[in-house]
Amino acid sequence: MTDAQTQIGQPASSSQSNADLAPILPAGSWDSHVHVIDEERYAFHPDHLFRPKKASLDDLLAFEQTLGVSHVCLIQVSVYKTDNRLLVDTLRELRGRARGVVVIDPDTITDAELDEMHAVGVRGVRLNIKTGDQTLSREYFCDLLQKYARRLRPRNWAIQIYLSLPQFKLIADEIPKLSNAEGTVPVVIDHLGHPNQSRPVHEQEGYTELMSSLRRKEIYLKLSATYRFPNLPALGAYAKDVIRTAPTQIIWASDWPHTGSVEYNPGGNRKIHQEYRRVDDVGYVRQCIDWCDGDEDLIRQIWVENPRRLWQYNEPIQQKL
């Protein structure tokens, strides 16, 4: 995407006219990575690394309607850390039409709390290693995954990991060990593994391990947030590579409302409300469809079938949001 398509802006696609926003996705499509943010309703964690403006459920529904999206998976935004109340409340408001991924402390959360979250549609937890640039040893990272897996197996919840591509190499061999006779723990990697923009992905550390895990169907990979690495050489070739390598393991997401995250902090000041990036979401959807080479079965698999399976959405498809 061009620099002009990733400027700071308001939630949703306010820069685009309604004439540009015709539904273009198959019926029952999912957006598997969105956030709701409301500091007035629920205060951010004292240690939040940036301060985004409000992005309400109404804003989200208006945005998804422009794309023809029917279902969403809400992802706990990092500024709330383990306070999942806004996400859980939003799932209740959506009355079963959505799913959620929360952030937890596996050492302190109770089974009763996990059961309550499951009842409203939570189907996974997120582990954010990328924001804040955490440096972890292989042993610590693998032990951490197993600690989470012990809590997730009884409910077959996914663990969603935001990391940089080289960090994937640290855990590639551990991923198959997370599921066992006690339950399944699907592993979801955010934002195409967040490659570095310095060189083509196939030359980067972690690429070989990521592609091998995809071929063995050990992970799901989110086709999302490519505006975070707009100068990546041969991005389209990489996207097509992962899609064709593991079509059953790719899910699409917008990453709405496009927070600026830590790198957009004005002078590092966490007290200033941060604007959202202005992204050509419709253009991005069309680009992703182009990467599928017009294969309607493949498009339906990525936007409908794969997320329904991953997020355990077994109910009949309902009305669009």
From TrEMBL:
One of its GO terms (molecular function) is hydrolase activity. Residues 1-20 are annotated as: Disordered. InterPro entries: Amidohydro-rel (IPR006680), Aro_Compnd_Degr_Hydrolases (IPR052358), Metal_Hydrolase (IPR032466). Residues 30-311 form the Amidohydrolase-related domain. It comes from the Eukaryota. Coiled coil: none annotated. Residues 1-19 have a biased composition (Polar residues). This is Amidohydrolase-related domain-containing protein.
